[in-house]
Specification:
235 residues, alpha/beta, Rossmann fold, Arc Repressor Mutant, subunit A, 2 domains, five-stranded parallel beta sheet, 8 helices, 13 strands, globular
């Protein structure tokens, strides 16, 4: 069964290109031009991935990104203008799984799509029901839940879950930004790519970890990040 992709972009030529190219790669593609059409498409069918342009008329992509993440964990790939670093950071903070600056080569987009879908499939596989307990939190690797000491579940995006899992499973070992970027999107971090840093900030907020003086996820200058808590593995 073909995986379904929803493209939301106001560029008619780009929509036609992505329908044809991704269709040739075996995907079923629905392409729409604004937020209203996006909502109608999501109400009428299930999708495996949403590709969302941030520069949309009317409701902008950041607004739609926030709405999507509030209602669903559906994987989300943002398309951004090359110079819009702030929008990329905000989009990642809102829960997007990856971004791709315009203009881009369709093969690069295809690689990003396959990487995201592969990570989601890995997370949703028949993993044993086990949990990692650290600093009063429980990360359920089977159900992909982060649970506080009082039993309240904290929602995580796909990227947040993968990053936290990598840090917890490698507790007290420094993980470089390149290695964490590979966990997130299967590529090395560029010199100006702040995706990992944004995700770390989001995780610290989820964990109630003070960003100025963090106790759970610490920054190791010029090296990367380390989760310093003791971890208990439960099966």
């Amino acid at each position: 069964m073909s995986q379904r992709i929803l493209v939301v972009d106001d560029d008619e030529q780009l929509r036609a290109l992505l329908r044809a190219y991704l269709g040739d790669q075996g995907f079923e593609v629905v392409a729409v031009d604004d937020g209203a059409a996006m909502r109608r498409a999501l109400e009428g069918a299930a999708f495996d991935l949403v590709i969302l342009d941030l520069m949309l008329p009317g409701e902008d992509g950041l607004t739609l990104c926030r709405e999507l993440r509030a209602r669903s964990r559906i994987p989300l790939l943002m398309l951004t203008a090359r110079g819009d670093e702030l929008d990329r950071i905000i989009g990642l903070e809102m829960g997007a799984d990856d971004y791709l600056p315009k203009p881009f080569h369709p093969r690069e987009l295809l690689a990003r799509i396959r990487s995201i879908l592969r990570r989601v499939q890995d997370l949703g596989g028949e993993a044993p029901a086990r949990a990692l307990v650290f600093a009063g939190w429980t990360l359920d690797l089977g159900r992909r839940h982060l649970v506080a000491a009082d039993g309240v579940a904290v929602s995580l995006s796909t990227g947040e879950f993968r990053l936290l899992q990598a840090l917890v499973e490698n507790a007290n070992r420094v993980m470089s930004r390149d290695r964490l970027m590979d966990v997130l999107s299967g590529r090395e971090a560029g010199p100006f790519d702040r995706s990992v840093d944004v995700m770390i900030s989001r995780l610290r907020r989820r964990l109630g970890d003070d960003g100025r003086e963090p106790e759970i996820i610490k920054t190791v200058r010029n090296e990367g990040y380390v989760l310093t808590a003791k971890v208990e593995r439960r099966r």
